[in-house]
Amino acid sequence: MEYDKTKFKIWTWKNPFMLHWMINPGIVINELILGQRIPKTILVEKNTAKTLQEKTKIPCPHCKTLHSGLKWAIKSNAFRNWFGLYCDNCGKTIPCLTNLTSYVILGLTFPIWYWFKNSWKKSWLEKQPARYRNLDLDNVPNPFEGYAWIKQGLYWGIWMYVLMTLLFPIINGEKLTFINALIGIPIWTIGGLGFGYTMKIVNGKKQLNPKTK
Ligand SMILES: [Zn+2]
What we know:
The chain has 213 residues and is an alpha+beta fold. The protein has helices at 16-23, 27-34, 52-55, 75-78, 100-108, 110-113, 117-131, 148-171, 178-203, and strands at residues 8-11, 42-45, 56-59, 66-68, 85-86, 93-94. It has nine helices and six strands.
């Protein structure tokens, strides 16, 4: 599918945000448990003073519809997208990235889920159209606006602390020491705040030069 490069920046797996999504092991929680997915291709409108989530367009490769990214920014649709993002125009799913750790876990557990996959997908697909009816896309809050980035950042930090400091040593067969558990707290507090603030900046409205308005 070809896109208008004068109008959009095109994000694929080579974009740092997308690469981070694939590499960070913590994302496995978002993907496999929460069902939060990132499409393989994202278009970002150029030269507008909108927030990132307002500028984001998600193309459906099946019917060529350019969906507003806000469809998946609202809380009820941001999660439970295990089989991909549902296209409410053609009823197919928009292909998404897969995090490397998710990929390994899915590979290892393949004999378990393989037998249920089709019936799961069928019942999932049946529930999708209702999720996209009567969406109010004009009032989607930016999750990082004002001071909300602090909450979002700390929330992310807690997940990372549990995963990287507490769970990973256990998985690796290392001993979790009290000192390491203690050191992890300030590291992931600062890490989380850094993440939240970065997201606030990335999501924020760009000031357009008044002369160009
Ligand atoms: Zn479609």
